[in-house]
Amino acid sequence: MTEQLFVTGAAGYLGQAISQRLSRAGYHVHGLVRSEVSARSVRAQGVTPVIGSLEDIGRFDLSTYDGIIDTATADHAPSTEAFLGALAGTGKTYLRTSGTGVYTDLAAGEFSSNVYTETDAFVPAPVVAARYESDQRVLDAANDDIRSVVIRPAMVFGDGGSEQLPLMLRYGLSTGRTIYAGSGENRWGNVYLYDLAELYLLALEHAKPGASYNVASGELAMSEVTDGIAHVLGQTGAREVSIEEARGELGARWVDVALASNSRVDSSRAKEELGWDPQGPDLLADLMDGSYRRIWASKGDPHDHTAR
Question: Which CATH fold would you assign to the domain 73-300?
């Protein structure tokens, strides 16, 4: 019998890629979406839409699903608790999407040599402490007969999207300049969207209860990432600005936690335990000569449609 899966954020950047991969593997995916428009979109991709929001989780009958893959947000503790309450004692699977942002160090653009494995002890910065606490709550739920797993992707890229990259691309388009904060020597791991989707399938089928996985296949300094963005937009290069100026331009929390922080991880566990073997392009290649160039370059210059 085909397993029935419930995926939150099914119309989102991560949720769509993961839902499609699970569907291709033979699972019947039911996707939580917020609107009729999104419902039509996911239905066209072979996903059965469930209209609602994370606020509705406690009112849904989740007993018909064999597993839950939560991709909507890492920062909605009430829905996390509702999922764990519904799954307690069932032995069913709950995959939580967190992120390597839990390792943010508020480094103000400076380099850090710290590279984290899943078993390293550390104290999260206050700004991400609640997310880390939810991660721990999910991992501890393995003691409640839930096959609970936490997946922490690094900066996800591919198909011209991401959480972080479009913000910087839009800023570069609107201002005519691309910036990084401080020295830009801080480093972030990254992972290709469809390599990440494959990791979810592997975790669904093979992960042990209480496991967590840091997921990255590459790593770059933020100055390198923003230089790539500048290249896409036809600019001469990214410009260093002070932390204060970057906060004023892009928002203090985003700058402190993402643009000027380090988030470096070791993904050996995913490769050794799950057999994860990332095959996608590296981030700079996809930025400068791949999906980002195809999608974003002509936005800056309507006459520039030629891939370089």
Answer: Rossmann fold (3.40.50)
